[in-house]
Amino acid sequence: MSKGIVLIDTESGTEKDVVGKIQNLEGVKEVHIVYGHNDLIAKVEAENIKELREMVCHIREMDAIHATSTLLVT
């Protein structure tokens, strides 16, 4: 099992909409609006690193997302 924390920067004012889209993705365990350098944080899981990378790529391609940073959990 591969696990990660995805830090997400969104377009201003779109945080709630993006949360709604991300939380419905398979493998997303939690997603929260946060304050500080990032706008959202998502806890994700996949069967392997390849599937985790595909999930993160899908998140990165969503409208209103400017950037992501993924932290792998061991």
Strand count, sense and barrel status of the largest sheet are: 4 strands, antiparallel
Average pLDDT: 97
Total domain count: 1
User: Roughly how much helix do the residues carry, as a percent range?
Assistant: 25-40%
Apparent shape: globular
Strand tally is 4
Low-confidence stretches: none
Q: Which structural class matches the secondary elements? A: alpha+beta
Task: Output the number of helix runs.
Answer: 2
**Strand order, biggest sheet?**
2-3-1-4
CATH fold topology:
Alpha-Beta Plaits
Cα gyration radius (Å): 11 Å
Strand content: 35-45%
Relevant CATH superfamily: Lrp/AsnC effector binding domain/regulation of amino acid metabolism (RAM) domain
Query: Topology as H/E string?
Result: EHEEHE
CATH class: Alpha Beta
The CATH architecture is 2-Layer Sandwich
Separation of the first and last Cα atoms: 10 Å
